[in-house]
Amino acid sequence: MISIVADTHTHTLACDHAYSTITENAAAAAKKGLKFLVMTEHAPAMEGAPSRLYFFNLPQIPRFIDGVMILKGAEVNIIDYRGSIDLPDSLTNKLEWVIASYHLPCIAPGTVAEHTNGWMRIAHNPLIDVIGHCGDSRYAFEQKTVIREFAAGGKIVEINAHSFEARPGSIENCRQIALLCAEYEVPVVVSSDAHYHTLVGNFDHAISLLEDIGFPHHLILNADYQRFLAVAQEKSGKPLTD
Known about the structure:
alpha/beta, globular, TIM Barrel, 8 strands, eight-stranded mixed sheet
């Protein structure tokens, strides 16, 4: 059975469509036995998201809350099909975990070719760590081509449990994406995408999918404490002990 040690995609009331504080999220993570919690607030192109100043000031958040290690990141928005994102490189480079995602309020769905081109550009952006909820059928892309490029670019693919309820086509698309990740040795993380503290650590749909297809355990980065710590330190560029 897959056991997850880190929730790698969560939101707080810093964004106006989420409803809990970081302290409440951390307490919920601790209660569920998680060792890591990643703060990934929406970047400014999302309606109601915090400004750049929020991300600049993230070092003020303590490394540990309720015994849970806090990583300070962002969910940046892809804002065109050339792979542009909505935080400057100078700021993105200082974050510890960066997810890139397509969102309806930030970019209207285009063609399969356009979505594919956007992901191909993101695959080779060294400041992007994680590919966010890419199973959304509204942003369908050439999966085999793109997953191979994620492998070449050293990207992590997120299996987002919230997508199974919120984003059309995600159940089957995530299954196919996960199978391709296994084929091309692309690592994944399981996440809740929680917008309220009681949802932190809710991974059941994503875990069931990975177990059902026999996904290789060694490629699930947040299924092992030391494995995730090593990846988090690599992505943040600093020892995560203070």
